[in-house]
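User: Need the bound-state model for magnesium ion:
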Amino acid sequence: MAHVCGLGMGLGAVGRVGAGASVSVSSSHGAGRRARAGVRAPASAKSHSVTLLPGDGIGPEILSVTRDVLVEVGRTKGVEFSFTEALVGGAAIDAAGTPLPAETLEQCRGSDAVLLAAIGGYKWDSNPRELRPETGLLGLRAGLNTFANLRPAIVLPQLADASTLKREVVSGVDIMIIRELTGDVYFGEPKGIEVRDGVRWGFNNMIYSEPEVDRIARVAFDIARKRGKRVCSVDKANVLDVSQLWRDVVTDVHSEFGDVELSHMYVDNAAMQLIRNPKQFDVMVTGNIFGDILSDAASMLTGSLGMLPSASLSDSGPGVFEPVHGSAPDIAGQDLANPLAQILSAAMMCRYGLDEPGVAQVLEDAVDKVLDAGYRTGDIMEQGGNFKQVGCKAMGEAVLKAVQGTL
Ligand code: IPM
Ligand code: MG
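Assistant: Bound-state model below.
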Protein backbone atom coordinates (compact mmCIF):
# COMPACT_ATOMS: atom_id res chain seq x y z
CA MET A 1 0.00 0.00 0.00
CA ALA A 2 1.35 3.39 -0.90
CA HIS A 3 1.12 5.99 1.78
CA VAL A 4 1.30 9.61 1.04
CA CYS A 5 2.79 11.40 3.97
CA GLY A 6 6.31 10.29 3.17
CA LEU A 7 8.65 12.94 4.42
CA GLY A 8 11.19 11.95 1.84
CA MET A 9 8.64 12.91 -0.77
CA GLY A 10 8.58 16.53 0.26
CA LEU A 11 6.43 18.46 2.69
CA GLY A 12 3.99 21.03 1.51
CA ALA A 13 2.90 24.44 2.56
CA VAL A 14 3.47 25.19 6.18
CA GLY A 15 2.21 28.35 7.75
CA ARG A 16 1.44 31.57 6.01
CA VAL A 17 4.81 32.17 4.45
CA GLY A 18 4.67 28.88 2.66
CA ALA A 19 1.02 29.02 1.71
CA GLY A 20 0.49 27.85 -1.81
CA ALA A 21 3.50 25.57 -2.03
CA SER A 22 2.52 22.15 -3.23
CA VAL A 23 3.08 18.71 -1.81
CA SER A 24 4.68 16.34 -4.22
CA VAL A 25 3.72 12.82 -3.33
CA SER A 26 2.73 9.63 -5.01
CA SER A 27 -0.86 9.53 -6.18
CA SER A 28 -1.43 5.80 -6.20
CA HIS A 29 -3.02 5.72 -2.78
CA GLY A 30 -6.66 4.87 -2.39
CA ALA A 31 -6.88 2.64 -5.44
CA GLY A 32 -8.45 -0.74 -4.90
CA ARG A 33 -9.07 -0.11 -1.25
CA ARG A 34 -11.64 -2.34 0.35
CA ALA A 35 -15.05 -0.78 0.65
CA ARG A 36 -15.92 0.76 3.97
CA ALA A 37 -18.78 2.86 5.17
CA GLY A 38 -18.16 6.20 3.56
CA VAL A 39 -19.51 8.97 1.50
CA ARG A 40 -20.63 8.29 -2.01
CA ALA A 41 -18.78 10.30 -4.55
CA PRO A 42 -18.52 10.06 -8.32
CA ALA A 43 -16.78 6.93 -9.58
CA SER A 44 -13.81 9.02 -10.61
CA ALA A 45 -13.44 10.51 -7.11
CA LYS A 46 -10.32 9.92 -5.12
CA SER A 47 -10.86 7.81 -2.04
CA HIS A 48 -9.02 7.94 1.25
CA SER A 49 -9.36 5.63 4.19
CA VAL A 50 -9.17 7.52 7.47
CA THR A 51 -9.09 5.95 10.90
CA LEU A 52 -10.94 8.09 13.42
CA LEU A 53 -9.79 7.89 17.04
CA PRO A 54 -12.26 9.88 19.16
CA GLY A 55 -10.58 8.94 22.45
CA ASP A 56 -11.78 10.63 25.63
CA GLY A 57 -13.36 13.75 27.08
CA ILE A 58 -14.35 16.25 24.40
CA GLY A 59 -12.76 13.99 21.76
CA PRO A 60 -15.97 12.38 20.46
CA GLU A 61 -17.77 15.76 20.18
CA ILE A 62 -15.09 17.58 18.25
CA LEU A 63 -14.38 14.63 16.00
CA SER A 64 -18.03 14.10 15.12
CA VAL A 65 -18.34 17.75 14.07
CA THR A 66 -15.13 17.45 12.06
CA ARG A 67 -16.26 14.30 10.33
CA ASP A 68 -19.41 16.04 9.11
CA VAL A 69 -17.35 18.94 7.82
CA LEU A 70 -14.91 16.62 6.03
CA VAL A 71 -17.75 14.75 4.38
CA GLU A 72 -19.21 17.99 3.10
CA VAL A 73 -15.92 19.35 1.79
CA GLY A 74 -15.24 15.98 0.20
CA ARG A 75 -18.62 16.11 -1.52
CA THR A 76 -17.96 19.55 -2.96
CA LYS A 77 -14.43 18.66 -4.08
CA GLY A 78 -15.16 15.14 -5.37
CA VAL A 79 -13.09 13.42 -2.69
CA GLU A 80 -14.35 10.36 -0.86
CA PHE A 81 -13.39 9.59 2.71
CA SER A 82 -14.06 6.16 4.16
CA PHE A 83 -14.01 6.41 7.93
CA THR A 84 -13.43 3.63 10.43
CA GLU A 85 -13.56 4.36 14.14
CA ALA A 86 -11.25 2.66 16.60
CA LEU A 87 -10.61 2.78 20.32
CA VAL A 88 -7.68 4.49 22.00
CA GLY A 89 -6.90 5.96 25.41
CA GLY A 90 -9.25 5.74 28.36
CA ALA A 91 -12.13 4.63 26.13
CA ALA A 92 -10.01 1.66 25.06
CA ILE A 93 -8.98 0.89 28.63
CA ASP A 94 -12.63 0.73 29.64
CA ALA A 95 -13.77 -1.29 26.63
CA ALA A 96 -10.78 -3.51 25.94
CA GLY A 97 -8.52 -3.35 28.99
CA THR A 98 -5.64 -1.67 27.17
CA PRO A 99 -5.05 1.92 25.96
CA LEU A 100 -3.96 0.77 22.49
CA PRO A 101 -5.66 -2.46 21.40
CA ALA A 102 -3.78 -4.41 18.73
CA GLU A 103 -6.75 -4.03 16.36
CA THR A 104 -6.52 -0.26 16.66
CA LEU A 105 -2.87 -0.21 15.66
CA GLU A 106 -3.57 -2.59 12.77
CA GLN A 107 -6.48 -0.46 11.65
CA CYS A 108 -4.31 2.66 11.75
CA ARG A 109 -1.46 0.99 9.89
CA GLY A 110 -3.81 -0.07 7.12
CA SER A 111 -5.32 3.36 6.54
CA ASP A 112 -4.12 6.38 4.63
CA ALA A 113 -4.25 8.67 7.66
CA VAL A 114 -5.27 8.75 11.30
CA LEU A 115 -7.39 11.56 12.68
CA LEU A 116 -7.11 11.57 16.46
CA ALA A 117 -9.08 13.77 18.85
CA ALA A 118 -7.79 13.63 22.44
CA ILE A 119 -7.06 11.15 25.18
CA GLY A 120 -6.96 11.14 28.96
CA GLY A 121 -9.08 12.04 31.96
CA TYR A 122 -9.11 12.10 35.76
CA LYS A 123 -10.65 8.66 35.82
CA TRP A 124 -7.46 6.94 34.63
CA ASP A 125 -4.88 9.30 36.18
CA SER A 126 -3.87 7.00 39.00
CA ASN A 127 -3.77 3.81 36.94
CA PRO A 128 -0.45 1.99 36.57
CA ARG A 129 1.49 3.30 33.60
CA GLU A 130 0.52 0.48 31.21
CA LEU A 131 -3.12 1.31 31.86
CA ARG A 132 -2.88 5.04 31.32
CA PRO A 133 -4.36 6.70 28.24
CA GLU A 134 -1.04 8.47 27.52
CA THR A 135 0.63 5.09 27.12
CA GLY A 136 -1.74 4.42 24.23
CA LEU A 137 -0.75 7.65 22.54
CA LEU A 138 2.95 6.93 22.92
CA GLY A 139 2.36 3.39 21.59
CA LEU A 140 0.61 4.83 18.56
CA ARG A 141 3.50 7.20 17.86
CA ALA A 142 6.05 4.42 18.22
CA GLY A 143 3.91 1.85 16.37
CA LEU A 144 3.47 4.14 13.37
CA ASN A 145 6.98 5.57 13.63
CA THR A 146 5.69 9.11 13.41
CA PHE A 147 8.97 10.73 14.34
CA ALA A 148 8.25 14.22 13.03
CA ASN A 149 5.71 16.28 14.91
CA LEU A 150 4.73 19.56 13.28
CA ARG A 151 3.14 22.08 15.61
CA PRO A 152 2.38 25.40 13.98
CA ALA A 153 1.74 28.35 16.27
CA ILE A 154 0.06 30.97 14.14
CA VAL A 155 -1.61 34.02 15.61
CA LEU A 156 -4.72 34.58 13.53
CA PRO A 157 -5.43 38.28 13.08
CA GLN A 158 -8.99 37.77 14.35
CA LEU A 159 -7.66 36.40 17.65
CA ALA A 160 -4.66 38.63 18.30
CA ASP A 161 -6.39 40.07 21.36
CA ALA A 162 -7.16 36.64 22.80
CA SER A 163 -3.54 36.15 23.88
CA THR A 164 -2.44 37.04 27.39
CA LEU A 165 0.53 38.79 25.76
CA LYS A 166 0.33 42.24 24.21
CA ARG A 167 -1.03 42.43 20.68
CA GLU A 168 2.16 44.04 19.36
CA VAL A 169 4.22 41.11 20.68
CA VAL A 170 2.08 38.36 19.18
CA SER A 171 0.37 39.75 16.09
CA GLY A 172 1.89 38.20 13.00
CA VAL A 173 3.54 35.31 14.87
CA ASP A 174 3.94 32.31 12.55
CA ILE A 175 6.19 29.66 14.07
CA MET A 176 6.52 26.03 13.07
CA ILE A 177 7.77 23.90 15.92
CA ILE A 178 9.19 20.62 14.74
CA ARG A 179 9.38 18.22 17.62
CA GLU A 180 11.13 14.86 17.39
CA LEU A 181 8.45 12.48 18.60
CA THR A 182 9.67 8.91 18.92
CA GLY A 183 12.95 9.21 20.84
CA ASP A 184 14.57 11.05 23.74
CA VAL A 185 13.78 10.56 27.41
CA TYR A 186 10.22 9.57 26.43
CA PHE A 187 11.38 6.24 25.05
CA GLY A 188 14.98 5.86 26.26
CA GLU A 189 16.03 2.77 28.18
CA PRO A 190 16.82 1.91 30.89
CA LYS A 191 13.97 3.45 32.84
CA GLY A 192 12.04 2.67 35.94
CA ILE A 193 11.70 3.06 39.67
CA GLU A 194 13.94 0.88 41.81
CA VAL A 195 15.02 0.50 45.38
CA ARG A 196 18.78 0.68 45.81
CA ASP A 197 20.21 0.37 49.29
CA GLY A 198 16.84 1.05 50.78
CA VAL A 199 16.29 4.25 48.79
CA ARG A 200 13.87 4.59 45.88
CA TRP A 201 15.30 5.90 42.59
CA GLY A 202 13.40 6.96 39.52
CA PHE A 203 15.22 7.20 36.22
CA ASN A 204 14.82 7.66 32.48
CA ASN A 205 17.41 7.89 29.77
CA MET A 206 17.74 10.95 27.58
CA ILE A 207 19.25 9.42 24.49
CA TYR A 208 19.43 10.15 20.75
CA SER A 209 21.19 8.31 17.98
CA GLU A 210 22.79 10.17 15.10
CA PRO A 211 20.27 8.86 12.51
CA GLU A 212 17.37 10.03 14.69
CA VAL A 213 18.75 13.57 14.83
CA ASP A 214 19.76 13.52 11.18
CA ARG A 215 16.28 12.70 9.91
CA ILE A 216 14.45 15.27 12.03
CA ALA A 217 17.01 17.94 11.07
CA ARG A 218 16.28 17.22 7.41
CA VAL A 219 12.57 17.64 8.00
CA ALA A 220 13.23 21.02 9.64
CA PHE A 221 15.45 22.28 6.83
CA ASP A 222 13.01 21.02 4.18
CA ILE A 223 10.13 22.82 5.82
CA ALA A 224 12.15 25.99 6.38
CA ARG A 225 12.88 26.07 2.66
CA LYS A 226 9.16 26.39 2.04
CA ARG A 227 8.75 29.16 4.61
CA GLY A 228 11.11 31.81 5.98
CA LYS A 229 14.31 29.76 5.43
CA ARG A 230 15.40 30.02 9.05
CA VAL A 231 15.84 27.16 11.52
CA CYS A 232 16.54 27.56 15.22
CA SER A 233 17.68 24.29 16.78
CA VAL A 234 16.97 24.10 20.50
CA ASP A 235 19.04 22.00 22.88
CA LYS A 236 20.86 22.06 26.21
CA ALA A 237 24.36 21.49 24.85
CA ASN A 238 25.94 23.54 27.63
CA VAL A 239 25.08 20.73 30.05
CA LEU A 240 23.93 17.57 28.26
CA ASP A 241 26.02 15.22 26.13
CA VAL A 242 22.93 14.09 24.28
CA SER A 243 22.39 17.72 23.30
CA GLN A 244 25.99 18.10 22.15
CA LEU A 245 25.43 15.21 19.74
CA TRP A 246 22.15 16.84 18.67
CA ARG A 247 23.92 20.13 17.93
CA ASP A 248 26.79 18.48 16.07
CA VAL A 249 24.48 16.43 13.86
CA VAL A 250 22.14 19.34 13.09
CA THR A 251 25.19 21.40 12.12
CA ASP A 252 26.46 18.61 9.86
CA VAL A 253 23.13 18.20 8.10
CA HIS A 254 22.93 21.96 7.64
CA SER A 255 25.93 21.83 5.30
CA GLU A 256 23.55 20.33 2.72
CA PHE A 257 21.08 23.21 3.12
CA GLY A 258 23.16 26.29 2.38
CA ASP A 259 20.10 28.35 1.50
CA VAL A 260 18.66 27.95 5.02
CA GLU A 261 19.98 29.94 7.98
CA LEU A 262 20.69 27.88 11.11
CA SER A 263 20.97 29.15 14.67
CA HIS A 264 21.24 27.24 17.95
CA MET A 265 19.62 28.18 21.22
CA TYR A 266 19.62 26.69 24.69
CA VAL A 267 16.19 25.56 25.75
CA ASP A 268 15.91 27.84 28.76
CA ASN A 269 16.70 30.84 26.62
CA ALA A 270 14.30 29.59 23.94
CA ALA A 271 11.47 29.47 26.47
CA MET A 272 12.26 33.05 27.45
CA GLN A 273 12.62 34.28 23.86
CA LEU A 274 9.29 32.71 22.89
CA ILE A 275 7.57 34.95 25.40
CA ARG A 276 9.82 38.00 24.92
CA ASN A 277 9.96 38.22 21.14
CA PRO A 278 8.26 35.30 19.40
CA LYS A 279 8.39 36.94 15.98
CA GLN A 280 12.12 36.21 15.77
CA PHE A 281 11.34 32.53 15.09
CA ASP A 282 10.47 30.80 11.83
CA VAL A 283 11.12 27.04 12.24
CA MET A 284 12.22 25.63 15.58
CA VAL A 285 13.51 22.07 15.74
CA THR A 286 14.03 20.25 18.99
CA GLY A 287 13.89 16.93 20.82
CA ASN A 288 10.86 15.24 22.26
CA ILE A 289 10.74 16.64 25.80
CA PHE A 290 11.89 20.17 24.95
CA GLY A 291 9.38 20.18 22.10
CA ASP A 292 6.61 19.07 24.42
CA ILE A 293 7.25 21.99 26.72
CA LEU A 294 8.04 24.68 24.15
CA SER A 295 5.04 23.82 21.99
CA ASP A 296 2.69 24.38 24.93
CA ALA A 297 4.36 27.73 25.59
CA ALA A 298 4.12 28.67 21.90
CA SER A 299 0.49 27.66 21.79
CA MET A 300 -0.35 30.29 24.38
CA LEU A 301 1.01 33.03 22.14
CA THR A 302 -2.04 32.39 20.03
CA GLY A 303 -4.47 32.84 22.88
CA SER A 304 -6.20 29.55 22.60
CA LEU A 305 -5.05 26.02 22.69
CA GLY A 306 -8.42 25.31 21.10
CA MET A 307 -7.13 26.61 17.76
CA LEU A 308 -3.96 24.62 17.24
CA PRO A 309 -3.62 21.56 15.02
CA SER A 310 -0.66 19.21 14.68
CA ALA A 311 0.67 16.59 12.33
CA SER A 312 2.86 13.62 13.23
CA LEU A 313 4.54 12.15 10.19
CA SER A 314 6.58 9.06 9.46
CA ASP A 315 8.71 8.49 6.41
CA SER A 316 6.62 5.70 4.97
CA GLY A 317 3.31 5.06 6.72
CA PRO A 318 0.19 7.00 7.66
CA GLY A 319 0.47 10.15 9.72
CA VAL A 320 -1.47 11.03 12.84
CA PHE A 321 -3.28 14.37 12.89
CA GLU A 322 -4.58 15.75 16.15
CA PRO A 323 -5.29 18.98 17.99
CA VAL A 324 -2.57 20.13 20.38
CA HIS A 325 -5.11 20.53 23.17
CA GLY A 326 -6.10 17.71 25.48
CA SER A 327 -9.37 15.99 26.30
CA ALA A 328 -10.70 18.77 28.60
CA PRO A 329 -12.71 16.39 30.82
CA ASP A 330 -14.10 19.35 32.77
CA ILE A 331 -16.23 20.46 29.82
CA ALA A 332 -16.77 17.09 28.13
CA GLY A 333 -20.28 16.24 26.98
CA GLN A 334 -21.57 19.79 27.50
CA ASP A 335 -21.34 21.03 23.92
CA LEU A 336 -18.83 23.69 25.00
CA ALA A 337 -15.68 22.50 23.24
CA ASN A 338 -13.97 24.37 20.43
CA PRO A 339 -13.82 22.04 17.40
CA LEU A 340 -11.62 24.35 15.30
CA ALA A 341 -8.26 22.78 16.20
CA GLN A 342 -9.70 19.41 15.20
CA ILE A 343 -11.00 20.83 11.93
CA LEU A 344 -7.62 22.44 11.27
CA SER A 345 -5.99 19.07 12.08
CA ALA A 346 -8.19 17.55 9.40
CA ALA A 347 -6.86 20.26 7.09
CA MET A 348 -3.29 19.25 7.96
CA MET A 349 -4.27 15.64 7.28
CA CYS A 350 -5.49 16.60 3.83
CA ARG A 351 -2.39 18.64 3.08
CA TYR A 352 0.34 16.40 4.48
CA GLY A 353 -1.26 12.98 4.71
CA LEU A 354 -3.58 12.69 1.75
CA ASP A 355 -2.17 15.01 -0.88
CA GLU A 356 -5.40 16.99 -0.98
CA PRO A 357 -4.22 20.58 -0.63
CA GLY A 358 -7.46 21.81 -2.23
CA VAL A 359 -9.56 20.23 0.51
CA ALA A 360 -7.18 21.59 3.14
CA GLN A 361 -7.54 25.08 1.74
CA VAL A 362 -11.35 24.92 1.83
CA LEU A 363 -11.22 23.85 5.48
CA GLU A 364 -8.77 26.57 6.45
CA ASP A 365 -10.73 29.24 4.57
CA ALA A 366 -13.95 28.10 6.25
CA VAL A 367 -12.39 28.48 9.71
CA ASP A 368 -11.20 31.93 8.70
CA LYS A 369 -14.72 32.85 7.60
CA VAL A 370 -16.46 31.76 10.79
CA LEU A 371 -13.97 33.77 12.84
CA ASP A 372 -14.50 36.79 10.58
CA ALA A 373 -18.23 36.36 11.06
CA GLY A 374 -17.73 36.62 14.82
CA TYR A 375 -18.45 33.03 15.88
CA ARG A 376 -16.58 32.17 19.08
CA THR A 377 -16.62 29.25 21.46
CA GLY A 378 -16.15 30.10 25.15
CA ASP A 379 -12.37 29.65 25.11
CA ILE A 380 -11.84 32.36 22.47
CA MET A 381 -14.77 34.61 23.36
CA GLU A 382 -13.96 38.29 23.66
CA GLN A 383 -16.01 40.99 25.29
CA GLY A 384 -17.24 43.90 23.21
CA GLY A 385 -17.39 43.78 19.46
CA ASN A 386 -19.78 41.77 17.42
CA PHE A 387 -19.17 38.24 18.68
CA LYS A 388 -21.58 35.33 18.91
CA GLN A 389 -20.75 32.77 21.58
CA VAL A 390 -21.62 29.30 20.35
CA GLY A 391 -21.14 25.69 21.40
CA CYS A 392 -19.31 22.91 19.64
CA LYS A 393 -22.17 21.83 17.39
CA ALA A 394 -23.14 25.34 16.37
CA MET A 395 -19.53 26.12 15.57
CA GLY A 396 -19.45 23.00 13.40
CA GLU A 397 -22.63 24.12 11.65
CA ALA A 398 -21.13 27.54 11.02
CA VAL A 399 -18.09 25.91 9.43
CA LEU A 400 -20.39 23.72 7.32
CA LYS A 401 -22.22 26.81 6.11
CA ALA A 402 -18.93 28.51 5.33
CA VAL A 403 -17.96 25.47 3.25
CA GLN A 404 -21.29 25.63 1.42
CA GLY A 405 -20.92 29.36 0.91
CA THR A 406 -24.06 30.18 2.87
CA LEU A 407 -22.59 31.73 6.02
C1 IPM B 1 1.53 16.13 23.84
C2 IPM B 1 1.09 15.57 25.16
C3 IPM B 1 1.63 14.15 25.26
C4 IPM B 1 3.13 14.24 25.27
C5 IPM B 1 1.11 13.36 26.46
C6 IPM B 1 -0.39 13.34 26.52
C7 IPM B 1 1.67 11.98 26.49
O1 IPM B 1 1.50 16.38 26.19
O2 IPM B 1 1.20 15.56 22.79
O3 IPM B 1 2.21 17.15 23.84
O4 IPM B 1 3.76 14.44 26.31
O5 IPM B 1 3.72 14.09 24.20
MG1 MG C 1 2.39 18.19 25.57
